[in-house]
Design goal:
This protein is an alpha+beta fold. The chain is 39% helix and 26% strand. β1 and β2 form a beta hairpin. α1 packs across α2. The longest helix is centred in the N-terminal third of the chain and has 15 residues.
């Protein structure tokens, strides 16, 4: 992601979240705040990749935070075209030692999507530590320490 991409990437995030409601809780930040987060936090970190379609433009966003798959969003009209899968494969290639992620318990389609791509559930929480205060699920893939620990149980 480059500086000129931040607003469009934030729009992908916003539109994807809105389309997934109520499985994904409503955002707790405004569109303007989300745009600022992309520009002020995600851009300098340098761990955000974009999926661009020749005709439709920006259609997906992937953000890694260390070994966490932190954000993965695809615009609603591009859903089901393999873009999310491509971004997960990119994340796996970039983090071959393993990945972990959080998803809302209510977002069953996301949980099924990640499970189909090799992620396993390692724990559930009541959501007390996320901004939305919604129950969530921790999932891990590969040799991520949380996946290895869960497999030993």
């Amino acid at each position: 992601m480059e500086a000129g991409d931040c607003e469009a990437a934030a729009e992908v995030w916003w539109r994807s979240r809105a389309a997934a409601y109520p499985a994904v809780p409503a955002p707790v930040h405004s569109r303007h705040e989300v745009g600022g987060w992309f520009a002020d936090v995600l851009l300098p970190d340098g761990q955000t990749w974009l999926a661009v379609d020749d005709e439709a433009g920006l259609v997906g966003v992937l953000t890694l935070d260390g070994d966490d798959l932190d954000q993965l969003y695809v615009v609603p009209e591009a859903a089901g075209r393999g873009i999310g899968s491509m971004l997960v494969e990119l994340a796996k290639a970039l983090r071959p030692d393993g990945l972990a992620l959080w998803a809302f318990q209510s977002n069953v389609p996301a949980l099924e999507f990640y499970a189909a791509r090799g992620f396993t559930e390692v724990r559930r929480t009541d959501g007390a530590t996320n901004e939305e205060r919604e129950p969530d699920v921790r999932m891990a893939w590969g040799d991520h320490p949380e996946a290895v620990t869960a497999a030993r149980r």
